[in-house]
Amino acid sequence: MITQEYFMEIQILRKQGKGIRQIANELCLSRNTVRKYLRSKKPPKYHSNQKRPSKLDPFKAFLEKRIKNAGRHFIPATVLYREIKELGYQGGITILRDWVRKGKKQVESQKRVVRFETPPGHQAQVDWTVVSKGLYAFVMILGYSRCAYVEFVQSTNEESLMRCHQNAFEYFGGFCKELLYDNMKTVVIQRDKYGPSQHGFQKAFWDFSKHWGFIPRLCRPYRAKTKGKVERFIGYLKRSFYYPLVTKEDHDLYSLNYEVKKWLSEIANKRWIKELKSTPQRRFVEESKHLQPLAPAYFSDKRCQIRQIEIVRPHPLEIYEMTGDMI
């Protein structure tokens, strides 16, 4: 039986116009499996298996502290085995070696930070940030071009999240095949709920993603750098736009959204990015060709869209510092 994520990918890749052979090759599944789940309207159901306690579990706190105190000095599994035997450990050395090896690999992978680039139209990163009490910013950034969309809202609930997505898709004129999130409660109920990479998604958000045809991905827990593009942009948004603006004059929600839309088109999406040797606006010309076409609106009303203000207090763009952040 395949995972629920695989089931969703099969449905979405089909919606994107790919044939059975292409889907099978891309997901490393047999064509019969792809056919089976294309015919099925309901995703596979899993039942959580109770994890059997390990004989090593009572000693893991001691081992973690021991390894942490050793710092860069590696302690062999044989030494650790001898020490926990004295504390009453009754298990074998094999499970200890496996646990130590797994921990060592995790530490090594955390030390390696590699800039992750994606092809045009493949992935966008999404996040919320708190800008002040009761005020939040929704941010979506396209992975290839770094073109960004920002919307200020007063709630981060499920409906607000989905409406902001819809507005972002309309702003870009399309959307990426994959969207990357952290562990937002409005997106996922529980990571690895049914096993590795078998996440329990919120049903409302699951239905929303199927309607549009994008695949939700989760970044690795406690690894903000997995979605570093959106994290860096949030810092840039606050330094270059929000703080200079609100320290000059007061703004309500609607004028904030009007101003940020202007800042995006005139400043943020035109900034020079050293690593890319280009601007988001220039790279968006290529990325826009690879975005998925817009589907019928999930929400028919326009309550969450940015309202166009007829009279806006003008602000010279000099107040928005061109920081030249390398995002």
UniProtKB/TrEMBL annotation:
The keyword Lyase does not apply. Pfam families: rve. GO terms for molecular function: DNA binding. The keyword DNA-binding applies. Keywords: DNA recombination, DNA-binding, Transposition. It comes from the Bacteria. Residues 115-288 form the Integrase catalytic domain. GO terms for biological process: DNA integration; DNA recombination; transposition. Residues 5-67 form the HTH IS21-type domain. Belongs to the transposase IS21/IS408/IS1162 family. NCBIfam families: transpos_IS21. PANTHER family: TRANSPOSASE, TRANSPOSASE RV3428C-RELATED. This is Transposase. It comes from Waddlia chondrophila (strain ATCC VR-1470 / WSU 86-1044).
